[in-house]
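ESCALATION

Customer reports they have been waiting on this structure for their group meeting. Please prioritize. Original submission:
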Amino acid sequence: MMPSIGTAKASHAKSLPPSRARHMPPVGQDEPLAIGYLGLALAGIPEARGAAVLFLLDPNSTMRRAVAGALGQVAASLTPTEVRRLIAMRNWRPENERAEVDAVIRKARAAGIDCATWDGGSIKAIVVTGVDGATAQGLLLISPAGRKERISAVLTKGGIADAWSGEPESRRQIEMSLPLPGWMPLRLPCPDLISIASRRRSCSPII
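Update from on-call: job pushed to the front of the queue and completed.
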């Protein structure tokens, strides 16, 4: 009976010096998915590489670290937008994983890649729920979208638990959707406060 690819790799890894075995691709049930992520990062296709950056948000730390390692190999090919996303996502990673993203950012910066600026935005209105017993709270944000308006939502629960943004709708459609039972308007001294906080314009030269 022929051994599986995963078994063969595991046996091969045991025969390697520890310094090389640490860099073997992940082995186990996550291996096919990890290989797919690495393929996106290393394929040499800009769209695939851009998608690989987003997999730094995978809930599995093995996946995230595999992607970070692959992106380090192609850091000089990243776009300014991808560098901006890396900087934003860096602070969303566990502290023990941030150095891996920092290394990718440094390599991209050393290759002369700038950080793209965020597009300007504005918020017309915000409605929120109260904080429930599970410390969850919902926010609906209404923003201009050309001649129409757009509803976006954020659910917080010890951090951002979910978020989505709808298609542009007419003002009449938006007004028909609001108000919702249990939701209340949020009045801010600075209307752009959440916009500024969510965009985090930082392109810090430190990392």
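Sent to customer with the following note: The radius of gyration is 22 Å.
Escalation resolved.
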